[in-house]
Amino acid sequence: MSRTEQTGTGRRRPPTIHDVAREAGVSRGTVSRVLNGGHNVSPAALDAVNSAIRKTGYTVNRHARSLITGRSDSVAFLLTEPQERFFEDPNFNVLLRGCTSALAAHDIPLLLMIAGTEAERRRNMRYIAGHVDGVLLVSSHSGDPVAAQLHEAGVPLVACGKPLGQGSKVSYVAADDRDGARDMVRFLYESGRRRIGTVSGPLDTPGGVERLAGYREMLADCGLPADDALIVPGDYSRAGGEAAAALLLERVPDLDAVFVASDLMAQGVLAALEKAGRSVPHDVAVGGFDDSPAALASRPALTTIRQPWDRISAEMVRVLLAQIGGDDPAAVILPTELVRRDSA
Amino acid sequence: MSRTEQTGTGRRRPPTIHDVAREAGVSRGTVSRVLNGGHNVSPAALDAVNSAIRKTGYTVNRHARSLITGRSDSVAFLLTEPQERFFEDPNFNVLLRGCTSALAAHDIPLLLMIAGTEAERRRNMRYIAGHVDGVLLVSSHSGDPVAAQLHEAGVPLVACGKPLGQGSKVSYVAADDRDGARDMVRFLYESGRRRIGTVSGPLDTPGGVERLAGYREMLADCGLPADDALIVPGDYSRAGGEAAAALLLERVPDLDAVFVASDLMAQGVLAALEKAGRSVPHDVAVGGFDDSPAALASRPALTTIRQPWDRISAEMVRVLLAQIGGDDPAAVILPTELVRRDSA
DNA sequence: CTGAAAGCGCTTACAG
DNA sequence: CTGAAAGCGCTTACAG
């Protein structure tokens, strides 16, 4: 080794492209070419460089690379949620975990950013521009301006769920909410239920809107009368589900089924039904949405609509990386599946 | 502006220290000094630079800075867990969220890394060295070698919970598990219970070991006989708690209380008791540990020991940043608190 | 207190 | 296919 080794307890100076070049007997340019795909490199040089890399234990200094390429080779996972709902909701975990490993397969680190307050949002936006190649956006209330801001700033972006009011300029990945809702309502109908209520999601969210639309469509398809008394909006929280169900029972005493737009709310619905002395599924059938861990933890276990979270996170990463690579925005809609358990 | 602006749809070239220097009428060195604390800068220069920064909208290019300082100004949150337990366990969320915002306050991004498999672990270890200033390590089975490896590699490191077998060379932050367990058992005793069993955590985890030790100590302090039939090891999962409670009931039919080493397991214990026809808390009192969201979601709501998660995450970040700044390792033990609800 | 200059480790036209 | 050279944007002794 020609450079001075550091003494003492510190870490050693890590090998650079320079060390590799000397070891391999080529120029630094050639080493760099090998690192970046090996184009225009002779087989002999390629071999020499590769074994020099192994021998020296070289890994690229990403800061130096980023300085020149302008890319950071990192991606942000941005959570815009005023409430702590996302952390209450197990879906979030699955999504975060899925995105982390999909990115890891490309050796791209995920920066977790949480924008609960306006100040945090500003801080995050400032950081994102110039420090991150793209953003995976998870935000329930899609009224918020983050998607628009990022899009305007030219930051590659994929949302989880369709961002309301963004046209189709912003990429997103979503489950087929409407179709899933239709499946559940059809299932309830086919098992003989005729007074089917619903606890919807918030109506400023795509899931809230679409699942309610599916419910309405299928009710009509089945020839059941539309009745606004059967519809109570929820807020995706457990407590909200419980309150909504209580209201529903008061308004519709002969209720025999409820389609609930999330499993967490369905837990609350189950609690309300138990308090009211209605047995599930005998008196009232309950269908959830998500197939989150909450569905299994419920008693009785929830019959629900599975969102394919693993595929959702994988597609979000795929679309984002494509977009960073220059592709145009794209929307991906993934099919859902009815999972039958004990609540309906 | 003297440099050429890019045309077309791309983002503009962001301002550099060079633009700020020209705007302020000083050298780039002076701008840099202002950026790094403003030492050895005259008030006039400082003002000029600061307003030039505002005017140009300058933000530092962290890659360039990192290239020269050798620091990345980022921190990894490394989750070492073969099972998906951490994502089932709501505690994880609170911890992750807390660390993210504590770091955000210092403008330091958190890189989320999940090492579920041996391959992922190797990948993460490779990334960490040289790409991250320090690591927040969250790992339940502390038998794993990650803490030792990181420590050996000279990476600043703070663990959540004491890493078994690391002596005191590795920093960690933990709740006072033993004391919390003592409090719960004392509480059960004082409410008249005399056949107090326990479902412990895994005995290769510090929480498992310490909470069991606290249980034993307090039983002795209360003059209750030690009886191994009263002790069943669990695995921190809901299903594990249910199985453990079933076993306990079989071995100790006159059981009148259980101290369960986690809220999630306590949910399983409640399920087992219900199946066995024992009412809670009348027949059997149940005390949990964590005060996670699971404690409130349980029915009846869990009497439990609160771990101060917000403080734990804040302290983890504080200790890590201190260590990155050159401080020696430190251990921080935080007090717990008994939260009384309906299960005991 | 301040400027000029070297250099961090890499990539990329450029000329051959 | 390959090397020499410029340059990405910053920090930091160094000399004044």
TrEMBL record, chains A, B:
Protein name in the entry: LacI family transcriptional regulator
Pfam families per record: LacI, Peripla_BP_3
Keyword presence, Transcription regulation: yes
Top-rank lineage group of the source organism: Bacteria
The keyword Transcription appears for this protein: yes
Listed InterPro entries: HTH_LacI, LacI/GalR-like_sensor, Lambda_DNA-bd_dom_sf, Peripla_BP_I
Keywords from the UniProt entry: DNA-binding, Transcription, Transcription regulation
Species: Streptomyces brevispora
GO molecular function, one term: transcription cis-regulatory region binding
Annotated HTH lacI-type domain residues: 15-69
Gene3D superfamilies per UniProt: 3.40.50.2300, lambda repressor-like DNA-binding domains
